[in-house]
């Protein structure tokens, strides 16, 4: 799969400078995306999902640093100049942001947002072509042509979100990072958006990285899933296989915490994600893990493949010879104060 990848990520690290020290928001992530594939990225708030998406495209705030490799069709994006990278964003690398209220210019009409985007990347495009292309994309989002010259504040939150999605799709990028694209949308519009994204990858072979909290959307719309915790990807694999038989305790606990029509009681993961300025040693999930062993608190887990195409970083799956004598003994929970680690 990595040989065919349109986007390949190796050892991606993103950190933010603070007075207390660097916040390691993304810490050694490996991913690959092939044309026409949808990869869902899931995890609790604060685990690094949005930072991962922005880091891939170089859209980081001032003071943030990134390292590793992000290769788009063989070219390392971190080695490109700022101008060369900006030229790729839009026609090749697209982004749907999570909060449209802060991303849409309140002084511009919707039409001006599309005009600015299309003229930047298609200098020879005519005014009529801009209008036709923009209205066609908005229509797919369920926004009528009569709203084309409205200002952002004249739309509801859900409609602003649809405008953001339309701006991300209008240039038909090869890779699209969608950060919570269905936030603020009702279930009917959410289903419409998922169908649209499926059509996009089917008709244009777009590779989609879908960041979401909604595990149901991942199960329905994604080919593969990557589960993030505290800046690490702890499990990746076919979405349906991972959901049917999760290998990492964190993935299992996330799935147990979802609510369905058959839910009879609420389940939650005790504690909270760790402070990424000073994360727990070794496996970062061990202070909250119901299956933690002594080795989990002292040694970084080795990534293994329980089955083809499935990777998990957890000592429960070995390799047994590296656990060491006594390392598989249950962790004494009293030795760790969950509140302090969180």
Keywords:
12 helices; globular; 31% helix; single chain; alpha/beta; 8-stranded mixed sheet; disordered C terminus
Q: Can you walk through the features of this model?
A:
The protein is an alpha/beta fold. It has a domain at 103-165. It is 31% helix and 21% strand. It has helices spanning 49-57, 82-88, 100-103, 110-121, 127-140, 157-169, 187-204, 215-221, 239-244, 249-256, 320-323, 338-341; strands at 7-16, 23-33, 38-42, 64-72, 75-76, 93-96, 175-179, 207-211, 224-229, 232-238, 303-307, 310-313. The strands form two sheets. An eight-stranded mixed β-sheet has the order 6-7-8-3-9-10-12-11, with helices on both faces. Strands 2-1-4-5 form a four-stranded antiparallel β-sheet, with helices on one face. Helix 5 (127-140) crosses helix 6. The chain is globular, with a radius of gyration of 21 Å. The model is unreliable at 333-342 (pLDDT under 50).
Number of helices: 12
Percent in strands:
15-25%
Give the oligomer, counting copies of the same chain as homo and different chains as hetero. single chain
Q: Helix/strand-derived class?
A: alpha/beta
The percentage helix is: 25-40%
Spatial order of the strands forming the largest sheet? 6-7-8-3-9-10-12-11
Unreliable residue stretches: 333-342
CA(first)-CA(last) distance: 37 Å
Mean of residue pLDDT values: 88
Main beta-sheet strand count, sense and barrel state = 8 strands, mixed
| CA gyration radius, whole angstroms | 21 Å
Order of helices and strands: EEEHEEHEHHHHEHEHEEHHEEHH
Described by the principal axes of the CA atoms, the overall outline is globular
Count the beta strands.
12
């Amino acid at each position: 799969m990595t040989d065919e990848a349109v986007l390949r990520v190796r050892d991606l690290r993103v950190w933010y400078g603070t007075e207390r020290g660097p916040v390691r928001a993304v810490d050694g992530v490996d991913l690959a995306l092939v044309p026409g594939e949808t990869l869902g990225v899931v995890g609790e708030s604060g685990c690094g999902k949005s930072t991962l998406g922005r880091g891939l495209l170089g859209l980081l705030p001032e003071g943030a640093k990134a390292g590793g490799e992000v290769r788009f069709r063989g070219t390392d994006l971190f080695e490109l100049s700022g101008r060369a990278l900006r030229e790729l964003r839009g026609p090749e690398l697209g982004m749907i942001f999570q909060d449209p209220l802060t991303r849409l210019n309140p002084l511009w009409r919707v039409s001006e947002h599309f005009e600015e985007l299309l003229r930047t990347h298609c200098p020879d495009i005519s005014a009529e072509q801009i209008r036709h292309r923009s209205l066609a994309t908005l229509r797919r989002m369920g926004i009528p042509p009569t709203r084309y010259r409205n200002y952002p504040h004249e739309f509801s939150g859900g409609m602003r979100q649809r405008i953001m999605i339309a701006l991300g799709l209008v240039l038909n990028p090869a890779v699209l990072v969608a950060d919570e694209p269905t936030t603020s949308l009702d279930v009917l519009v959410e289903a419409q958006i998922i169908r649209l994204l499926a059509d996009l990858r089917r008709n244009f072979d777009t590779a989609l990285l879908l960041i979401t909290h909604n595990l149901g959307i991942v199960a329905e719309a994604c080919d593969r899933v990557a589960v993030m915790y505290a800046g690490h990807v702890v499990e990746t694999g076919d979405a349906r296989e991972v959901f049917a038989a999760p290998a990492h305790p964190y993935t299992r606990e996330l799935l147990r915490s979802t609510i369905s029509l058959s839910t009879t009681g609420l389940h939650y993961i005790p504690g909270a994600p760790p402070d990424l300025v000073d994360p727990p040693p070794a496996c970062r999930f061990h202070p909250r893990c119901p299956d933690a062993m002594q080795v989990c608190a002292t040694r970084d887990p080795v990534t293994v493949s329980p089955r083809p195409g499935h990777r998990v970083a957890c000592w429960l799956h070995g390799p047994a010879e590296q656990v060491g004598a006594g390392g598989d003994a249950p962790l004494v929970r009293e030795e760790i104060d969950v509140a302090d680690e969180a």
